[in-house]
């Protein structure tokens, strides 16, 4: 529903055509929030759709608070590096790029000029960055992927977990997200006898210490040595060495709240800036 440009539903697929038209015609600066994720293994205990559930939670909450439209155009993403684990669906780079371009292009044709993005899956990053550049050039729209805040206490805590324990996939952070938003989908009992399965050269394990004076250098050397597929270095699909059973949903709730608010603040400020002349046609 939309009345005089004010939405009461925020998923595009829940709007009627007249409601969409009311919103896009009466909101002076309509914004679409596009989220993408993945359908890929997330260890033994988290759902295959973890990354897309993440994207859905964030973009819908941002849309609700900013009178924007929430769009998640697909469930899978770019996940060839997870294909060693069954259940993964991996789109090709061309497929995901095409989905993003067609989504933006369709809505641009209907009058939307501003698009913000969020990806719950790091493997989508390069394709999403290319899609945003191409959309600007070929669909004449404004695009951006806000990231922040990075200096809050919560952000620093989670960055520490990521750096020190490689908590980047299926560890406590993602487990906390599912326990917060979709607890019925977590099968924590599958971790009863869990021990870390990360297999790295001992030298590379030493490079995971963020207290090292040369950490900026060694973390990049470690990244340069990264093997192409997740099953090359972990047998259970959990990339880190900290225990997912230590997940803290309240810590994640704080991070979710501040990220949502950062997006909302970004959108509200962005909407005060007149459309640059290059995007007017």
What is the CATH superfamily of the largest domain? Creatininase
Spatial shape: globular
C-alpha termini separation: 28 Å
Strand order of the largest sheet: 4-3-5-6
The number of distinct helices, counting runs of at least 4 residues, comes to 9
Layout of secondary structure:
Elements: E1 2-3, E2 6-7, H1 17-26, E3 31-36, H2 50-66, E4 69-71, H3 93-109, E5 114-119, H4 125-139, E6 142-144, H5 153-165, H6 172-181, H7 202-206, H8 215-224, H9 249-270
Helix pairs in contact: 2-6, 2-9, 3-4, 6-9
Summarize the structure.
The protein is of the alpha/beta class and 281 residues long.
Structure overview:
The protein has helices spanning about 15-25, 50-65, 95-110, 125-140, 155-165, 170-180, 200-205, 215-225, 250-270; strands at about 1-5, 5, 30-35, 70, 115-120, 140-145. The chain is of the alpha/beta class and about 280 residues long. It folds into two domains: about 1-150 and about 255-280, 3-Layer(aba) Sandwich (Rossmann fold); about 155-255, no CATH class. The strands form two sheets. Strands 4-3-5-6 form a four-stranded parallel sheet, sandwiched between helices. A two-stranded antiparallel sheet has the order 1-2. Helix 3 (about 95-110) runs parallel beside helix 4. The protein is globular. The model has no long low-confidence stretch (mean pLDDT about 95).
């Amino acid at each position: 529903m939309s009345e005089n440009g004010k939405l009461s539903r925020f998923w595009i697929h829940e709007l009627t055509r007249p409601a969409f038209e009311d919103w896009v015609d009466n909101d002076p600066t309509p914004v679409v929030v596009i989220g993408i994720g993945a359908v890929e293994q997330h260890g033994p205990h988290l759902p295959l759709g973890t990354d897309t559930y993440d994207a859905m939670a964030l973009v819908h909450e941002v849309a609700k608070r900013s009178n924007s439209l929430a769009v998640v155009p697909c469930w899978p993403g770019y996940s060839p590096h997870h294909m060693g684990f069954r259940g993964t669906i991996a789109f090709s780079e061309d497929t995901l790029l095409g989905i993003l371009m067609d989504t933006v292009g369709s809505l641009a044709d209907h009058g939307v000029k501003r698009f913000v993005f969020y990806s719950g899956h790091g493997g989508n990053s390069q394709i999403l960055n290319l899609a945003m550049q191409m959309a600007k050039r070929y669909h004449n729209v404004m695009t951006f992927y806000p990231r922040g805040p990075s200096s809050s206490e919560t952000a620093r805590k989670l960055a520490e977990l990521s750096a020190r324990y490689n908590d980047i996939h299926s560890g406590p952070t993602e487990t906390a997200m599912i326990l917060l938003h979709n607890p019925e989908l977590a099968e924590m009992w599958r971790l009863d006898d869990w021990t870390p399965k990360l297999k790295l050269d001992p030298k590379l394990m030493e490079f995971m210490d963020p207290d090292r004076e040369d950490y900026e250098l060694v973390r990049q050397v470690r990244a340069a040595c990264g093997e192409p597929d997740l099953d090359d270095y972990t047998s259970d699909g959990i990339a880190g060495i900290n225990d997912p059973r230590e997940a803290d949903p309240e810590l994640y709730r704080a991070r979710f709240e501040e990220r949502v608010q950062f997006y909302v603040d970004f959108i509200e400020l962005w909407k005060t800036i007149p459309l640059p002349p290059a995007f007017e046609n």
